[in-house]
Amino acid sequence: MIRFYFHPTPNPAKVALFLEESGLEYEVCPVDTSKGEQHLPAFRSINPNGKVPAIVDTDGPGGTEARVFDSSAILLYLADKTQRFAGTPAERPELLSWLFFISSGLGPFSGQAVHFQHAAPEKIPYAINRYRREIERHYRVLDEHLSKREYIVGSDYSIVDMSAWGWLERAPRVLATEEPLAAFPNLRRFFDAISARPAVARARAVGRDFTFKREMDEAARRALFPSNYAETTL
């Protein structure tokens, strides 16, 4: 059994997609990050960094319980566990390269673009332009890469495609426009093809049985952005 610590944001969405694609048995454990539940000792014992997603596999290696945090680590762990969606051994270097391209570039820059456009108390033109331009650059890299291929790595669907889908799903919010992929036709085709998979509809429904805080009040800001409050110790 996989205990899946979840909040309805892009990085947990990637893991939800893998779980639905693989058919692994799992239990959703909601973590309301706007209420600060990611900072509670019980969750910090699972992810010391206080971020979602995280999983606990009660049937880990050798029958032991295993905790895994960070979406890319979780995808790699689950791919190895199930021997699915990890490409061929020959494709492993390419798979790792693109997976970390997403986890160290596309993901963080998308998050910062969202923050400075939608959450920051001040609209700072330099910051907004910086992160939007970097997202567009990352999109161009992927768009060019996908010009002659169906999937990001090799000839089959993999965890890299799931990882990219998690953030592309939020592209309208990341670039604050209704047609964010219009200038990237290969990326648009790729995203539409992944989104048409039956498991995506199921992944999008994960967590809908739970109510998460939506208000961006002062308590939520302190919970989500504790580094902005020097006096806060979490």
From TrEMBL:
Transferase found in the keyword field: yes
Single annotated GO MF: transferase activity
Matches recorded under SUPFAM superfamilies: GST C-terminal domain-like, Thioredoxin-like
Keywords per UniProt: Transferase
UniProt xrefs under CDD domains: GST_N_Ure2p_like
Residue ranges constituting the GST C-terminal domain according to the UniProt record: 88-223
Domain GST N-terminal: 1-86
Membrane-crossing segments per the record: none
Keyword Secreted: no
Name of this protein: Glutathione S-transferase
